[in-house]
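Issue 218. Parser rejects a valid record. Input:
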Amino acid sequence: MKTFERTRKVYVLDRAAVDTLSETIQGFLESIRLENRNRIRIRFAMEDLLLRVCEHYDEKAVCTLEMGRRLGRAFISIRYGGELYNPTTSDNGEDQFSRRLLVDMGFAPVWSRKGSQNHISLWIHEEKRLAALNLPLGIAAGIVLGFLGLLLPESARTYLDSNVLTMFFYAFLGVLATFASLSLFLFLSSAVSSLGDIVTYGRYGKRVMNRFIGLSFAAAVVAIVLYRPFFHLVHSSGSSPAETLAELLALIASILPENPASPFIMNDSMQLIFMGVTMGIGLVVLGESASQLKAVLGQGNSLVTFLMESISRYSPIFIATTIISHIWSSNLSEFFHMMWKPVVLYLVLVAGMLLTMLLFTAKKHHVSRKWLLRNLKPAMLISLQTASAGASYGETENVVTHRFGVPKKLTDFALPIGQTMYMPATICAFIATAYYLSEIYAVKVDLTWFVIATVVCTMMAIALPPIPGSGIGCYAIMLSRLDIPYEALGAAIVLDIFFTFIGRAVDCGMLQMELIHCADALGILNRKLLEKQK
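Output the parser choked on:
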């Protein structure tokens, strides 16, 4: 397929021009090889906006269409003069938080006013199927370069290890941990504050989000309990019940910051989580009087998400340098020691979760298990191939709306939120990694450690975006909170390569079925459509 060159054209926006623009946008989306369902969604969204502009200005608006790439990212830009008019204003009850998630995924356009021009822009998040191979290539490059480096004099290896590899390791880790913790604060504050912004069905939004969060914590507890017998952990010297209670109380007290600045200065993820939730609740109480601050937090969250995605592109270099350092230190066997164990346990647990959910859903709604699995598979395969939940958005939306009987008004806000906040398989991956690294590095654990692991792993999965490489920031936080040496981050990323592909696919399947249960619990499931399709 030929590459679509950057283009800029001017049209008088009548009905014929709208059709022409729609076809041009379609050609551009095909050229960047976007997944078909997502391509259709974006084309229809842009066509709808163009029709609104056409009707508002009585087919007299002069419109400039620009498409191409800027800073390596695909975009579509539409500008038109005249009075201030925002065609992206929702008239179907869409809440602002869901819309912001769709904007971050590249599925929703943004309107702005620049001088005398109205400006509609859409930055497209391209899911490149081969991009997920960068991390495995980083591992391979690290092994090859590490063994080739053994041919160098020992003094040269020592110098490079101390002054190049180690410097890059801690620089990358510091930047990653900083933005990962900040992402927790911004995402949670934005998510909670948006609970009061749902126009038509506010009573649905809060219940669905609480359900997602509750089920996520339940998955974490199940993983903590079921994984425990298979790992040999070093327990702290026997603490009395009074001492254990004192540690838990101290943990709760440590979550409360001494002042508003200390969580950011100390980069304390637990305190930032507390601050984010507290800030969100305060903004809900203030309502419209705090609308500008809500917008700033939302924009900040989008910015940090973009930065996290940019930083994660350098993770192959990070893992390559980590493996090189381990080879030169003659402890490569420790790096990969018993790595099969968390992988096998993870596969067994998530397969059991998916199968249990499949059997329960089929029995409760009286549908065939084979029919249900057949409809779950397309979106799951997309997530498996791209290691991303966002790539399967269009296919998931189509299936749950047109085959599972979930009303579109619920899908429009519950699906983007669910792809971020409902990630049970990802949570199980974090906990499996925490257990494995704690065993390898002989980390001392107690009841407080298990509580922290449950909370941190759940909140990390909830508060980071569904993009490739997002788990890397999670592991940086996890290591610092669970007293695991930073040297373990390389092994965590190696595990994450495998976990991400499988986890995104399982999360996708679980979410599709959970949306059926959400609609049923709210009394809005279209049972006739569900029964007709089966």
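Fixed in the parser; the record now loads. The first strand starts at residue 7 and ends at 12.
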